[in-house]
């Protein structure tokens, strides 16, 4: 689960990370009031769960409260990559001497947290890694030992931080690491971490991604989920224990298992179609799950055809077929539907469906070809 | 021979009295797996499916002589079950549980590395050596004994591929689902190394998916350390960036971990990559007749 900048800011603040003063505004009037209270030039920053908001014009400076109101009203009317901006962060503008980077990520290959620092902040760290890998410094943290001061000091030395700033740097690194661990994050990042004219460090932009699997023990963090920014169907699917991702195509997919669901999308694309979604209905493909899944994917009006692809294993194909029939009794499907059943008791399963006048095919390729055809009105 | 599990496997089921654990215990026994008991804290002394239930792993191992454990414990309690298994004397742990927090798994992994116990999973469908032993949740009857080793990050997609192999008469030495999580006990290379050393395995099928860089390291390993032929499939060519595709580990992040990168890595080392799942069996058949 991605957090907004303002949410990550609040968390980092609790761990002693120095931040510019500021508040969240939902209206231009609120932005005006915040800027007045701060009494200094401010930055007005769109709060959306997407990268690239700066390039899209979602971050603007304002030298006085009137300008802040003007900028906020412009930004609050914007939509960035299709998402309407509903709130802005108004923070004091900082005079930046140099932009640094500090972040903690999960390194999947090392199976450990890795802290990354760079003298090149303010751009995407992946870009730095690609273009100037020598400007990156990394240390692997032992998850039992946690971050040691010497490791943070080592990073500071490697990116050429001045001696007078190292103690402050270590405190920030420790705070960031503790926030990462105590919130069960998969990413905690300060980019840029600014070195100011006065030689202080300040976290200008903050980013945090939480581990969805750990939210069960963080009720307070789960409550930070921004429901206005979550795709409606994805939210509903999540509530039903299904895994659904909305895509842009016209063929709705209903598959058991994540790997097979991805492969099904790939084959649709291979044969000239576009999948409307990713949907893993779960290994057993029970009737009630299939019904819920059908409702969700059919609520996408772009869907012109449905492809159901089930591999029957422990739950045999005949049981799966009965489940599909039951689901189709509950949900009215008005677009052509192709069912592909394979695995244990495949013939029996397909016979049951054929009896109910449901088109079945035996291979994934046939299924994809047929779905692409019927989606085009064939 | 085969890898990881065989007729000498003596299996304990952690979470045997749970719904999932019970359901699959019956099926593993039905397949012929030598299940020797189960562990559920607080239910020691009871019996389940004709097997003794213990309160703790150490006692269970001491009495049954078990060498392998399978875990069906719900995610919040699974890390403790993993630590307990690692401390009990079994040499192999298979973890079916999905949804274990990443931070817990990083610690578990570190502890397992120290203790030298092998883990398959979590979020794994398990391991099967056809005709001998099934430690997992996969449908046993689609498998058939043979010489193709299969390693995969997926569940049903693997069944799909195995089913086609079986229908073409291409049996399997062992099929290993390493799991769909970002932090895993064993990665693709760990299993490739075992297949390379296994006399019963003549070739390998590798099924990857988006997320991480395990496939890229597997490609490296295949060029430098493998003599046996291999073929592959990578799921998720059409997956969008930044979205988790079901598995916790299946996500393109920061533009990395795409199917394209992985396919390129395989092709660069001359590994055939199937365009769709059924082409895997075709590629295997071609390799066998060569």
DSSP summary, beta strand count of chain A:
18
Oligomer: heterodimer
Instruction: Tell me the Rg of chain B in angstroms.
Output: 18 Å
SS strand fraction of chain A: 25-35%
List the uncertain runs of chain B.
none
Strand order of the largest sheet of chain B: 3-4-2-1-5-6-7
Spans of chain A with pLDDT under 50 lasting ≥5 residues? Answer: none
**Largest sheet report of chain A:** 6 strands, antiparallel
Distance separating the two termini of chain A: 41 Å
**Overall average pLDDT of chain A:** 92
Query: Shape of chain A from CA axes?
Result: elongated
State the separation between the terminal residues of chain B, measured CA to CA.
Answer: 24 Å
Q: Could you please describe the fold and organization of this structure?
A:
The complex is a heterodimer of chains A (378) and B (290). By secondary structure, chain A is α+β, with helices and mostly antiparallel strands. Chain A is 37% helix and 26% strand. Chain A is built from 13 helices and 18 strands. The two termini of chain A are 41 Å apart. Chain B contains nine helices and 13 strands. Chain B is globular, with a radius of gyration of 18 Å. The mean pLDDT of chain B is 96. The chains are: A alpha+beta (378), B alpha/beta (290). At the A-B interface, helix 9 of A face helix 4 and helix 5 of B.
């Amino acid at each position: 689960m991605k957090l907004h900048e303002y949410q990550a800011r609040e968390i980092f603040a609790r761990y002693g990370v120095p931040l510019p003063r500021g508040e969240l505004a939902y209206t231009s009037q609120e932005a005006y009031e915040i800027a007045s209270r701060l009494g200094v030039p401010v930055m007005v920053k769109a709060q959306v769960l997407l990268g690239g908001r700066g390039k899209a014009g979602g971050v603007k400076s304002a030298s006085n409260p009137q300008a802040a109101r003007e900028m906020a009203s412009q930004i609050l009317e914007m939509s960035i990559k299709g998402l309407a901006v509903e709130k802005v962060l108004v923070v004091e503008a900082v005079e930046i001497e140099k932009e640094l980077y500090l972040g903690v990520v999960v390194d999947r290959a090392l199976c450990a947290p890795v802290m990354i620092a760079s003298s090149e902040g303010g751009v995407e760290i992946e870009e730095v890694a690609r273009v100037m890998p020598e400007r990156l410094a990394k240390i692997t943290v032992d998850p039992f030992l946690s971050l040691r001061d010497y490791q943070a000091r080592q990073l500071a030395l490697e990116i050429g931080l001045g001696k007078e700033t190292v103690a402050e740097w270590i405190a920030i690194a420790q705070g960031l690491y503790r926030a990462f661990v105590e919130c069960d994050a998969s990413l905690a990042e300060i980019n840029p971490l600014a070195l100011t004219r006065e030689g202080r460090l300040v976290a200008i932009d903050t980013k945090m991604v939480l581990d969805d699997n750990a939210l069960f023990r963080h009720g307070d963090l789960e409550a930070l989920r921004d429901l206005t920014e979550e795709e409606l169907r994805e939210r509903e699917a999540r509530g039903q224990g299904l895994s659904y991702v909305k895509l842009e195509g016209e063929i709705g997919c209903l598959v058991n298992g994540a790997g097979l669901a991805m492969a099904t999308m790939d084959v649709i694309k291979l044969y000239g179609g576009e999948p409307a979604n990713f949907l893993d209905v779960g290994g057993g493909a029970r009737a009630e799950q299939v019904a819920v899944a059908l409702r969700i994917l059919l609520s996408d009006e772009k869907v012109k055809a449905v492809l159901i692809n089930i591999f029957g294993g422990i739950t045999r194909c005949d049981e799966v077929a009965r489940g599909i029939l039951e689901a189709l009794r509950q949900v009215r499907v008005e677009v052509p539907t192709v069912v592909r059943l394979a695995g244990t008791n495949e013939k029996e399963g397909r016979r049951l469906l054929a009896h109910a006048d449901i088109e079945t095919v035996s291979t994934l390729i046939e299924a994809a070809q047929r779905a692409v055809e019927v989606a085009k009105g064939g | 021979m085969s890898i990881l599990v065989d007729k000498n496997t003596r299996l304990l089921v952690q979470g045997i009295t749970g719904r999932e654990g019970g359901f699959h215990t019956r099926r593993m026994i039905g397949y012929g797996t030598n299940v020797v008991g189960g562990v559920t804290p607080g239910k020691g002394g009871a019996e389940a499916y004709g097997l003794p239930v213990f309160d703790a792993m150490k006692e269970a191992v001491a009495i049954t002589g078990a060498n392998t454990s399978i875990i069906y414990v719900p995610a919040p309690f699974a890390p403790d079950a993993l630590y307990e298994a690692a401390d009990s004397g079994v040499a192999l742990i298979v973890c079916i549980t999905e949804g274990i927090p990443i931070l817990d798994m990083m610690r578990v992994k570190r502890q397992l590395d120290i203790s030298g116990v092998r883990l398959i999973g979590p979020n794994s469908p398990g391991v099967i050596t056809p005709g001998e032993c099934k430690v997992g949740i996969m449908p046993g009857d689609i498998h058939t004994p043979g010489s193709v080793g299969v390693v995969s990050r997926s569940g049903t997609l693997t069944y799909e591929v195995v089913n086609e192999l079986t229908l073409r008469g291409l049996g399997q030495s062992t099929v290993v689902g390493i799991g769909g999580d970002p932090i895993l006990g064993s990665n693709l290379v760990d299993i490739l190394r075992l297949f390379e050393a296994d006399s019963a395995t003549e070739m390998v099928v590798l099924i990857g998916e988006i997320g991480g860089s395990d496939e890229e390291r597997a490609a490296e390993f295949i060029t430098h350390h493998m003599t046996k032929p291999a073929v592959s499939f990578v799921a998720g060519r059409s997956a969008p960036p930044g979205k988790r595709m079901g598995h916790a580990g299946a996500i393109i992040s920061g533009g990395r971990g795409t199917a394209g990168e992985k396919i390129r890595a395989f092709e660069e080392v001359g590994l055939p990559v199937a365009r769709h799942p059924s082409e895997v069996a075709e590629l295997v058949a071609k390799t066998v007749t060569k």
